[in-house]
Amino acid sequence: MSTEKPFDVCIIGAGPGGYVAAIRSAQLGLRVALVEKGETLGGTCLNVGCIPSKALLESSRLYTQMRDEGALHGIRADGLTVDIEAMMARKQGVVNALASGVRTLVKENGVALFQGTARLVGPNEIDLSAADGASQRLMARNFVLATGSVPTGLPNLPFDGTVVVDSTAALSFECAPSTLVVVGGGAVGLEMASLWSRLGTDVHVVELMPRLLPGMDSQLGTTLGRCLKRQGITIRTGTAIVGIKPHDGGAILMTEGRDGHAGELPAEKVLVAVGRRPFAGDLGFDAVGVEVDEKSGGVTVDERFMTSCPGVYAIGDLIGGPMLAHKAEDEGMAVAEILAGKPGFVNYSTIPSVVYTWPEVAAVGRTEDQLKEQNVDYVAGVFPFKANGRAFCAGEQDGMAKVLADVASDRILGVHVIGPHASELIAEAVCLMEFGGSAEDLARTVHAHPTLSEAVREAALAVAGRAIHARGQHR
Fold first, then answer.
1. Core-most of 42, 294, 309, 318, by most CB within 10 Å?
2. Where in the sequence of the chain do the CATH 3.50.50.60 domains occur?
3. pTM value surpassing 0.90
Protein backbone atom coordinates (compact mmCIF):
# COMPACT_ATOMS: atom_id res chain seq x y z
CA MET A 1 0.00 0.00 0.00
CA SER A 2 1.09 3.63 -0.26
CA THR A 3 0.05 6.89 1.27
CA GLU A 4 -2.31 8.89 -0.92
CA LYS A 5 -0.96 12.34 -0.13
CA PRO A 6 2.79 12.94 0.13
CA PHE A 7 4.17 14.30 3.35
CA ASP A 8 6.08 17.58 3.31
CA VAL A 9 8.92 15.83 5.11
CA CYS A 10 9.65 12.30 6.26
CA ILE A 11 12.35 11.82 8.88
CA ILE A 12 14.08 8.44 9.09
CA GLY A 13 15.29 7.75 12.61
CA ALA A 14 13.70 8.93 15.87
CA GLY A 15 16.79 9.70 17.90
CA PRO A 16 17.56 13.17 19.31
CA GLY A 17 18.08 14.63 15.85
CA GLY A 18 15.14 12.89 14.22
CA TYR A 19 12.38 13.45 16.73
CA VAL A 20 13.44 17.07 17.28
CA ALA A 21 13.38 17.64 13.50
CA ALA A 22 9.91 16.10 13.38
CA ILE A 23 8.51 18.21 16.21
CA ARG A 24 10.05 21.43 14.91
CA SER A 25 8.80 20.73 11.38
CA ALA A 26 5.29 20.19 12.70
CA GLN A 27 5.49 23.43 14.71
CA LEU A 28 6.28 25.21 11.46
CA GLY A 29 3.15 23.87 9.79
CA LEU A 30 4.65 21.03 7.75
CA ARG A 31 2.95 17.67 7.29
CA VAL A 32 5.43 15.30 8.93
CA ALA A 33 6.14 11.57 9.03
CA LEU A 34 8.63 10.01 11.44
CA VAL A 35 9.97 6.51 10.79
CA GLU A 36 11.68 4.44 13.51
CA LYS A 37 12.73 0.81 13.21
CA GLY A 38 12.87 0.23 16.97
CA GLU A 39 9.98 -0.18 19.35
CA THR A 40 10.83 2.96 21.33
CA LEU A 41 11.71 6.51 20.34
CA GLY A 42 14.78 8.44 21.43
CA GLY A 43 17.49 6.48 19.65
CA THR A 44 20.79 5.41 21.16
CA CYS A 45 21.00 8.45 23.43
CA LEU A 46 17.78 7.86 25.31
CA ASN A 47 17.63 4.07 25.24
CA VAL A 48 21.20 2.75 25.51
CA GLY A 49 23.46 5.78 25.79
CA CYS A 50 23.27 9.22 27.40
CA ILE A 51 20.24 8.71 29.62
CA PRO A 52 20.79 5.21 31.06
CA SER A 53 24.48 5.91 31.62
CA LYS A 54 23.70 9.12 33.53
CA ALA A 55 21.05 7.35 35.59
CA LEU A 56 23.59 4.71 36.64
CA LEU A 57 26.33 7.29 37.18
CA GLU A 58 24.02 9.25 39.49
CA SER A 59 23.17 6.10 41.47
CA SER A 60 26.78 4.99 41.81
CA ARG A 61 27.93 8.50 42.70
CA LEU A 62 25.32 8.70 45.47
CA TYR A 63 26.58 5.39 46.84
CA THR A 64 30.23 6.46 46.93
CA GLN A 65 29.32 9.83 48.44
CA MET A 66 27.57 8.13 51.33
CA ARG A 67 30.28 5.51 51.68
CA ASP A 68 33.38 7.68 51.37
CA GLU A 69 32.32 11.21 52.23
CA GLY A 70 29.42 10.90 54.63
CA ALA A 71 31.59 10.69 57.74
CA LEU A 72 33.21 14.02 56.86
CA HIS A 73 29.75 15.58 57.17
CA GLY A 74 28.90 13.73 60.37
CA ILE A 75 26.75 11.20 58.53
CA ARG A 76 27.29 7.54 59.43
CA ALA A 77 26.33 4.93 56.88
CA ASP A 78 27.65 1.70 58.34
CA GLY A 79 26.78 -1.50 56.49
CA LEU A 80 26.02 0.30 53.25
CA THR A 81 25.34 -2.10 50.36
CA VAL A 82 24.49 -1.88 46.67
CA ASP A 83 21.58 -3.65 44.98
CA ILE A 84 22.62 -3.63 41.33
CA GLU A 85 19.39 -5.28 40.22
CA ALA A 86 17.39 -2.43 41.80
CA MET A 87 19.80 0.11 40.33
CA MET A 88 19.28 -1.34 36.86
CA ALA A 89 15.51 -1.35 37.37
CA ARG A 90 15.59 2.34 38.29
CA LYS A 91 17.70 3.06 35.20
CA GLN A 92 15.17 1.31 32.97
CA GLY A 93 12.33 3.16 34.64
CA VAL A 94 14.01 6.48 33.82
CA VAL A 95 14.48 5.39 30.20
CA ASN A 96 10.90 4.18 29.86
CA ALA A 97 9.45 7.38 31.29
CA LEU A 98 11.46 9.65 29.00
CA ALA A 99 10.83 7.49 25.93
CA SER A 100 7.11 7.59 26.67
CA GLY A 101 7.38 11.36 26.99
CA VAL A 102 8.99 11.66 23.56
CA ARG A 103 6.22 9.55 22.02
CA THR A 104 3.61 11.79 23.64
CA LEU A 105 5.32 14.94 22.31
CA VAL A 106 5.47 13.50 18.81
CA LYS A 107 1.77 12.56 18.93
CA GLU A 108 0.67 15.90 20.41
CA ASN A 109 2.46 17.76 17.62
CA GLY A 110 0.54 15.85 14.97
CA VAL A 111 3.50 13.86 13.62
CA ALA A 112 2.55 10.62 11.82
CA LEU A 113 4.65 7.83 13.35
CA PHE A 114 5.59 4.70 11.40
CA GLN A 115 7.52 1.69 12.70
CA GLY A 116 9.75 -0.23 10.33
CA THR A 117 12.96 -0.18 8.32
CA ALA A 118 13.10 2.44 5.60
CA ARG A 119 14.87 2.27 2.25
CA LEU A 120 15.00 5.02 -0.35
CA VAL A 121 13.60 3.84 -3.67
CA GLY A 122 13.37 7.25 -5.32
CA PRO A 123 13.97 10.93 -4.55
CA ASN A 124 10.47 11.23 -3.10
CA GLU A 125 9.65 7.70 -1.99
CA ILE A 126 10.72 5.08 0.53
CA ASP A 127 9.87 1.45 1.04
CA LEU A 128 8.94 0.76 4.66
CA SER A 129 9.33 -2.82 5.88
CA ALA A 130 7.73 -3.86 9.16
CA ALA A 131 9.10 -6.56 11.46
CA ASP A 132 6.29 -8.93 10.39
CA GLY A 133 7.32 -8.65 6.74
CA ALA A 134 4.59 -6.27 5.66
CA SER A 135 5.67 -3.33 3.53
CA GLN A 136 4.29 -0.04 2.31
CA ARG A 137 5.44 3.00 0.36
CA LEU A 138 5.66 6.47 1.87
CA MET A 139 5.81 9.54 -0.34
CA ALA A 140 7.36 12.82 0.77
CA ARG A 141 8.64 15.97 -0.84
CA ASN A 142 11.72 15.82 1.38
CA PHE A 143 13.48 13.17 3.43
CA VAL A 144 15.76 13.72 6.43
CA LEU A 145 18.15 10.90 7.29
CA ALA A 146 18.82 10.75 11.04
CA THR A 147 19.91 7.16 11.59
CA GLY A 148 22.68 7.86 14.12
CA SER A 149 25.73 5.74 14.79
CA VAL A 150 26.92 2.43 16.25
CA PRO A 151 29.96 1.52 18.36
CA THR A 152 33.23 0.96 16.52
CA GLY A 153 35.02 -2.30 17.15
CA LEU A 154 38.66 -3.21 16.77
CA PRO A 155 39.86 -5.89 14.34
CA ASN A 156 41.84 -7.67 17.04
CA LEU A 157 39.09 -7.23 19.67
CA PRO A 158 35.83 -8.24 17.97
CA PHE A 159 32.67 -7.91 20.03
CA ASP A 160 31.35 -11.26 21.24
CA GLY A 161 28.61 -9.88 23.50
CA THR A 162 29.87 -11.85 26.48
CA VAL A 163 33.46 -11.00 27.31
CA VAL A 164 34.31 -8.30 24.75
CA VAL A 165 31.40 -5.88 24.82
CA ASP A 166 30.30 -2.43 23.68
CA SER A 167 28.88 0.37 25.79
CA THR A 168 25.32 -0.91 25.42
CA ALA A 169 26.18 -4.20 27.10
CA ALA A 170 28.26 -2.42 29.74
CA LEU A 171 25.11 -0.62 30.87
CA SER A 172 23.34 -3.89 31.65
CA PHE A 173 25.80 -6.11 33.52
CA GLU A 174 23.84 -8.23 36.00
CA CYS A 175 26.56 -7.83 38.59
CA ALA A 176 29.80 -5.93 38.98
CA PRO A 177 32.61 -7.75 37.13
CA SER A 178 35.65 -8.63 39.22
CA THR A 179 37.88 -6.95 36.64
CA LEU A 180 37.04 -4.68 33.72
CA VAL A 181 39.48 -3.48 31.08
CA VAL A 182 38.24 -0.39 29.26
CA VAL A 183 39.91 0.08 25.88
CA GLY A 184 39.69 3.78 25.10
CA GLY A 185 40.22 6.82 27.30
CA GLY A 186 37.50 9.02 25.83
CA ALA A 187 34.21 10.14 27.35
CA VAL A 188 32.29 6.85 27.07
CA GLY A 189 35.16 4.70 28.31
CA LEU A 190 35.90 6.90 31.31
CA GLU A 191 32.24 7.18 32.30
CA MET A 192 31.85 3.40 32.26
CA ALA A 193 35.16 3.02 34.11
CA SER A 194 33.88 5.39 36.81
CA LEU A 195 30.53 3.61 37.07
CA TRP A 196 31.88 0.11 37.62
CA SER A 197 34.84 1.19 39.74
CA ARG A 198 32.39 2.80 42.17
CA LEU A 199 30.47 -0.47 42.35
CA GLY A 200 33.54 -2.52 43.32
CA THR A 201 35.11 -3.58 40.02
CA ASP A 202 38.88 -3.47 39.55
CA VAL A 203 39.03 -1.21 36.48
CA HIS A 204 41.93 -0.68 34.09
CA VAL A 205 41.76 1.94 31.33
CA VAL A 206 44.01 1.43 28.31
CA GLU A 207 44.47 4.38 25.96
CA LEU A 208 46.66 4.41 22.85
CA MET A 209 47.35 8.15 23.03
CA PRO A 210 49.73 9.67 25.60
CA ARG A 211 46.88 11.06 27.72
CA LEU A 212 43.21 10.69 28.48
CA LEU A 213 40.56 12.68 26.59
CA PRO A 214 42.85 13.18 23.59
CA GLY A 215 40.38 15.46 21.81
CA MET A 216 40.07 17.91 24.69
CA ASP A 217 42.40 20.43 26.31
CA SER A 218 45.47 18.58 27.58
CA GLN A 219 45.17 20.05 31.07
CA LEU A 220 41.72 18.49 31.43
CA GLY A 221 42.92 14.99 30.56
CA THR A 222 45.95 15.23 32.82
CA THR A 223 43.93 16.50 35.78
CA LEU A 224 41.17 13.93 35.32
CA GLY A 225 43.74 11.15 35.11
CA ARG A 226 45.10 12.08 38.55
CA CYS A 227 41.59 12.17 40.01
CA LEU A 228 40.60 8.78 38.59
CA LYS A 229 43.81 7.19 39.85
CA ARG A 230 42.98 8.41 43.37
CA GLN A 231 39.59 6.76 42.96
CA GLY A 232 41.31 3.43 42.36
CA ILE A 233 41.20 3.22 38.57
CA THR A 234 44.40 2.07 36.88
CA ILE A 235 45.31 4.24 33.88
CA ARG A 236 47.62 3.03 31.12
CA THR A 237 48.21 5.64 28.45
CA GLY A 238 50.46 5.23 25.43
CA THR A 239 49.49 1.56 25.38
CA ALA A 240 48.04 -0.60 22.62
CA ILE A 241 46.11 -3.87 22.82
CA VAL A 242 47.85 -6.22 20.41
CA GLY A 243 46.02 -9.47 21.12
CA ILE A 244 43.54 -11.38 23.23
CA LYS A 245 43.20 -14.96 24.41
CA PRO A 246 40.44 -16.68 26.41
CA HIS A 247 41.15 -17.35 30.05
CA ASP A 248 38.99 -18.75 32.86
CA GLY A 249 35.71 -17.45 31.47
CA GLY A 250 37.24 -14.08 30.72
CA ALA A 251 40.26 -13.04 28.72
CA ILE A 252 43.88 -12.00 28.88
CA LEU A 253 44.83 -8.97 26.84
CA MET A 254 48.31 -8.58 25.43
CA THR A 255 49.53 -5.01 25.69
CA GLU A 256 52.41 -3.08 24.18
CA GLY A 257 53.60 0.33 25.31
CA ARG A 258 55.08 3.03 23.14
CA ASP A 259 58.47 2.07 24.56
CA GLY A 260 57.98 -1.45 23.22
CA HIS A 261 57.34 -2.95 26.66
CA ALA A 262 54.97 -5.92 26.42
CA GLY A 263 52.59 -7.10 29.11
CA GLU A 264 49.44 -9.06 29.89
CA LEU A 265 46.23 -7.83 31.47
CA PRO A 266 43.57 -10.27 32.71
CA ALA A 267 39.90 -9.27 32.64
CA GLU A 268 36.49 -10.76 33.31
CA LYS A 269 35.00 -8.20 30.93
CA VAL A 270 36.52 -6.04 28.20
CA LEU A 271 34.75 -2.86 27.13
CA VAL A 272 35.83 -1.53 23.74
CA ALA A 273 35.05 2.20 23.71
CA VAL A 274 37.15 3.62 20.89
CA GLY A 275 34.45 5.62 19.16
CA ARG A 276 31.42 5.28 16.94
CA ARG A 277 30.75 5.15 13.22
CA PRO A 278 27.77 6.44 11.20
CA PHE A 279 24.97 3.95 10.75
CA ALA A 280 23.95 4.02 7.12
CA GLY A 281 22.56 0.49 6.90
CA ASP A 282 20.76 -0.38 3.69
CA LEU A 283 19.13 2.99 3.13
CA GLY A 284 19.15 2.74 -0.66
CA PHE A 285 21.77 5.37 -1.32
CA ASP A 286 22.64 3.83 -4.68
CA ALA A 287 19.05 4.10 -5.85
CA VAL A 288 18.95 7.89 -5.45
CA GLY A 289 22.63 8.83 -5.77
CA VAL A 290 23.44 9.83 -2.17
CA GLU A 291 27.22 10.18 -1.87
CA VAL A 292 28.99 8.53 1.06
CA ASP A 293 32.26 9.66 2.59
CA GLU A 294 34.53 6.64 2.12
CA LYS A 295 36.70 7.51 5.12
CA SER A 296 34.00 8.02 7.73
CA GLY A 297 31.19 5.97 6.21
CA GLY A 298 28.89 8.92 6.73
CA VAL A 299 26.92 11.06 4.32
CA THR A 300 28.24 14.18 2.61
CA VAL A 301 26.00 17.25 2.94
CA ASP A 302 26.17 20.92 1.99
CA GLU A 303 25.67 23.91 4.30
CA ARG A 304 21.89 23.33 4.16
CA PHE A 305 22.24 19.66 5.21
CA MET A 306 21.26 18.46 1.72
CA THR A 307 22.94 15.36 0.36
CA SER A 308 23.98 14.94 -3.28
CA CYS A 309 20.38 13.92 -3.99
CA PRO A 310 18.04 16.97 -4.07
CA GLY A 311 15.32 16.67 -1.46
CA VAL A 312 17.28 14.20 0.69
CA TYR A 313 18.89 15.69 3.79
CA ALA A 314 20.98 14.24 6.60
CA ILE A 315 21.82 15.28 10.17
CA GLY A 316 23.40 14.03 13.39
CA ASP A 317 25.95 11.27 13.65
CA LEU A 318 25.36 10.37 10.00
CA ILE A 319 27.24 13.49 8.90
CA GLY A 320 30.51 15.10 10.02
CA GLY A 321 31.23 16.82 13.31
CA PRO A 322 31.09 15.66 16.93
CA MET A 323 28.78 12.73 17.61
CA LEU A 324 26.77 14.44 20.33
CA ALA A 325 23.04 14.34 20.99
CA HIS A 326 22.76 18.11 21.41
CA LYS A 327 24.58 18.68 18.13
CA ALA A 328 22.05 16.41 16.40
CA GLU A 329 19.16 18.22 18.10
CA ASP A 330 20.33 21.60 16.85
CA GLU A 331 20.79 20.22 13.35
CA GLY A 332 17.27 18.79 13.57
CA MET A 333 15.84 22.21 14.37
CA ALA A 334 17.97 23.87 11.69
CA VAL A 335 16.98 21.49 8.90
CA ALA A 336 13.31 21.82 9.85
CA GLU A 337 13.55 25.58 9.61
CA ILE A 338 15.32 25.34 6.25
CA LEU A 339 12.57 23.08 4.89
CA ALA A 340 9.99 25.59 6.10
CA GLY A 341 11.70 28.36 4.16
CA LYS A 342 13.38 29.94 7.15
CA PRO A 343 17.10 30.45 7.88
CA GLY A 344 18.49 27.44 9.74
CA PHE A 345 21.97 27.54 11.20
CA VAL A 346 24.21 25.66 13.64
CA ASN A 347 27.24 27.37 15.16
CA TYR A 348 29.66 24.47 15.38
CA SER A 349 32.29 26.56 17.16
CA THR A 350 30.13 26.77 20.28
CA ILE A 351 29.03 23.16 20.74
CA PRO A 352 30.01 22.07 24.26
CA SER A 353 31.44 18.68 25.15
CA VAL A 354 30.93 17.01 28.52
CA VAL A 355 32.39 13.97 30.31
CA TYR A 356 30.22 12.79 33.21
CA THR A 357 32.93 11.40 35.42
CA TRP A 358 33.48 12.93 38.86
CA PRO A 359 34.81 15.50 38.76
CA GLU A 360 32.94 16.33 35.57
CA VAL A 361 34.70 17.73 32.53
CA ALA A 362 33.20 20.28 30.16
CA ALA A 363 34.57 22.42 27.36
CA VAL A 364 33.60 24.74 24.55
CA GLY A 365 35.69 26.38 21.85
CA ARG A 366 39.33 25.86 21.05
CA THR A 367 41.98 24.25 23.24
CA GLU A 368 45.39 25.67 24.09
CA ASP A 369 47.02 23.11 21.80
CA GLN A 370 44.82 24.22 18.90
CA LEU A 371 45.55 27.89 19.49
CA LYS A 372 49.27 27.20 19.56
CA GLU A 373 49.07 25.19 16.34
CA GLN A 374 47.13 28.02 14.69
CA ASN A 375 49.61 30.64 15.95
CA VAL A 376 46.88 32.56 17.74
CA ASP A 377 48.04 35.02 20.39
CA TYR A 378 45.98 34.22 23.46
CA VAL A 379 45.94 34.67 27.22
CA ALA A 380 44.88 31.93 29.64
CA GLY A 381 43.25 32.59 32.99
CA VAL A 382 42.98 29.63 35.37
CA PHE A 383 41.24 29.43 38.75
CA PRO A 384 41.22 26.35 41.05
CA PHE A 385 38.04 25.03 42.67
CA LYS A 386 39.91 24.61 45.94
CA ALA A 387 39.72 28.41 46.26
CA ASN A 388 35.97 28.50 45.56
CA GLY A 389 33.82 28.83 48.68
CA ARG A 390 30.90 26.70 47.49
CA ALA A 391 33.20 23.91 46.31
CA PHE A 392 35.08 24.03 49.62
CA CYS A 393 31.81 23.71 51.56
CA ALA A 394 30.88 20.66 49.49
CA GLY A 395 34.32 19.07 49.84
CA GLU A 396 34.75 19.27 46.07
CA GLN A 397 38.16 20.83 45.66
CA ASP A 398 39.52 19.02 42.61
CA GLY A 399 39.81 20.77 39.28
CA MET A 400 39.83 24.23 37.81
CA ALA A 401 38.18 26.59 35.35
CA LYS A 402 40.18 27.98 32.44
CA VAL A 403 39.28 30.85 30.12
CA LEU A 404 41.23 31.43 26.89
CA ALA A 405 40.96 34.89 25.34
CA ASP A 406 42.39 36.58 22.27
CA VAL A 407 45.23 38.97 23.16
CA ALA A 408 44.13 41.74 20.81
CA SER A 409 40.34 41.67 21.20
CA ASP A 410 39.89 39.87 24.55
CA ARG A 411 37.21 37.77 22.82
CA ILE A 412 36.76 34.39 24.50
CA LEU A 413 38.18 31.60 22.35
CA GLY A 414 37.58 28.67 24.66
CA VAL A 415 36.50 27.70 28.17
CA HIS A 416 37.54 24.45 29.84
CA VAL A 417 36.26 23.26 33.21
CA ILE A 418 37.02 20.21 35.32
CA GLY A 419 35.21 20.19 38.63
CA PRO A 420 31.85 19.69 40.33
CA HIS A 421 28.87 20.12 38.00
CA ALA A 422 31.05 21.32 35.12
CA SER A 423 28.30 20.13 32.77
CA GLU A 424 26.05 22.92 34.07
CA LEU A 425 28.75 25.57 34.42
CA ILE A 426 29.75 25.38 30.75
CA ALA A 427 26.37 26.76 29.59
CA GLU A 428 27.35 30.25 30.71
CA ALA A 429 30.46 30.13 28.55
CA VAL A 430 28.53 28.81 25.55
CA CYS A 431 26.00 31.63 25.81
CA LEU A 432 28.70 34.28 26.14
CA MET A 433 30.64 32.91 23.16
CA GLU A 434 27.46 32.85 21.05
CA PHE A 435 27.28 36.61 21.51
CA GLY A 436 31.00 37.10 20.85
CA GLY A 437 31.67 38.05 24.47
CA SER A 438 35.00 38.92 26.00
CA ALA A 439 36.79 37.81 29.14
CA GLU A 440 36.12 41.30 30.49
CA ASP A 441 32.37 40.80 29.89
CA LEU A 442 32.46 37.64 31.98
CA ALA A 443 34.70 39.18 34.63
CA ARG A 444 32.30 42.13 35.11
CA THR A 445 29.17 39.99 35.31
CA VAL A 446 27.92 39.65 38.90
CA HIS A 447 27.73 36.04 40.06
CA ALA A 448 25.82 34.97 43.17
CA HIS A 449 27.93 34.05 46.19
CA PRO A 450 28.69 31.36 47.13
CA THR A 451 28.31 29.45 43.86
CA LEU A 452 30.48 27.21 41.77
CA SER A 453 30.01 29.58 38.85
CA GLU A 454 32.22 32.10 40.62
CA ALA A 455 35.19 29.93 39.65
CA VAL A 456 34.44 30.61 35.98
CA ARG A 457 34.23 34.33 36.66
CA GLU A 458 37.51 34.24 38.60
CA ALA A 459 39.16 32.49 35.64
CA ALA A 460 38.00 35.37 33.47
CA LEU A 461 39.44 37.82 36.01
CA ALA A 462 42.68 35.84 35.90
CA VAL A 463 42.93 36.50 32.15
CA ALA A 464 43.82 40.08 33.13
CA GLY A 465 45.88 38.94 36.12
CA ARG A 466 43.33 40.11 38.68
CA ALA A 467 41.68 37.06 40.21
CA ILE A 468 40.42 38.01 43.68
CA HIS A 469 40.13 34.88 45.79
CA ALA A 470 43.35 33.19 44.74
CA ARG A 471 46.39 34.10 42.74
CA GLY A 472 45.01 32.17 39.81
CA GLN A 473 47.18 31.53 36.79
CA HIS A 474 47.74 34.15 34.15
CA ARG A 475 49.84 33.25 31.12
1. 318
2. 7-63+73-150+277-348, 164-274
3. yes
